[in-house]
Amino acid sequence: MLNDTLRRVLQQMPKAELHIHIEGSLEPELIFALAERNGVKLPYGSVEALRAAYAFTDLQSFLDIYYAGASVLLHEQDFYDMTAAYLRRAEADNVRHTEIFFDPQTHTHRGVPMDVIINGIHRACQDSPVSATLILCFLRHLSEDDAIATLEAALPYRDQFIGVGLDSSEVGNPPEKFARVFARCRALGLHLVAHAGEEGPPAYIYTALDTLNVERIDHGVRCLEDPALTARLAKEQMALTVCPLSNIKLCVFDRMERHNLLELLDAGIVATVNSDDPAYFGGYMNDNFIATFEALPLGLSHAQRLARNSFAAAFLPAAQKQQYLDEVDAFFAKV
Ligand SMILES: Nc1ncnc2[nH]cnc12
Ligand SMILES: [Zn+2]
């Protein structure tokens, strides 16, 4: 059990979130409200029936429901409302800065225009007291040509996102499938990240680094299967955006006591804690911290390190980053 001090510290410490899919923040109540507002018929009769379907066996079983949930998003105000709801939750968890993933292809393939998606999400970010930037993710189960067309469609809104990522079904869709589009994004000065080593093997982490030139690895927890890779990630201070509750819900680890977050930290890796798809996986940032610290032998020094890592790994100007790091240290000096 967590003592009261540690619980309070986890809740109140300043933190950044670096791995959140905005479509994964759609709570069942909002899915039903938007379905009604937009006249969309859902294959579930009630909020309870939808929630009961959240019993996942692997990544794909989750993605099928996640894409169905996103089908209620049609208008700019829907994207605004979804994002504003997430940002209120983040603010309540003392998230000071968040880098939000969005999946345009999930929506453009249903006929929703790119400007509707980006403007709705971006406007909610501007209206929030939480610092928020956007990362456009390509769906890796689709073709690279589709990713390239998506990038072209998003370029008129280039100033509204800071980077690109790679998500969706990992196994069978290795990073190198997207070498050309990532090279183009790099030339455009976009930040680069990719999901790798969630369900996929360490080889996918190598190609995310060496072929795509990513600056962070999303998940990456399977790196520990390869000692040379683990040592390299530590040496290069390549951050991993770890999502503990997600890993349990998608059966990457069978229970939290078996999660490898502490081993990653002990190996010298810049691991961070994040929520991934909080509406589907049982919690937002503080729920992830509390569940992990309850299950693993982690203490105050780990909390400080994780809070520092979250800002150190953020795509922020150096001065702003230092300000947040100083804020973390000032917070822990008073604990
Ligand atoms: N955990 C995850 N892995 C891959 N793609 C995703 N899309 C949303 N959540 C994801
Ligand atoms: Zn993810």
From TrEMBL:
Binding residues annotated for substrate, in chain numbering: D277
SUPFAM superfamilies: Metallo-dependent hydrolases
Keywords: Hydrolase, Metal-binding, Nucleotide metabolism, Zinc
Reactions it catalyzes: adenine + H2O + H(+) = hypoxanthine + NH4(+)
Broad EC category: hydrolase
CDD domains on file: ADA
Residue span(s) of domain Adenosine deaminase: 14-330
Site (Important for catalytic activity): H219
Entry's cofactor comment: Binds 1 zinc ion per subunit.
Any one GO molecular function term: hydrolase activity
Entry annotation: catalytic residues: E198 (proton donor)
Record-listed Zn(2+) binding positions: H19, H21, H195, D276
Domain of life from the UniProt record: Bacteria
Catalytic activity, EC: 3.5.4.2
Cofactor: Zn(2+)
InterPro entries reported in the protein's UniProt record: A_deaminase_dom, ADE, Ado/ade_deaminase, Metal_Hydrolase
Cited function: Catalyzes the hydrolytic deamination of adenine to hypoxanthine. Plays an important role in the purine salvage pathway and in nitrogen catabolism.
Family indicated by similarity: Belongs to the metallo-dependent hydrolases superfamily. Adenosine and AMP deaminases family. Adenine deaminase type 2 subfamily.
HAMAP family per the UniProt record, alphabetical: Adenine_deaminase (MF_01962)
Name under which the protein is recorded: Adenine deaminase
Source species: Duganella lactea
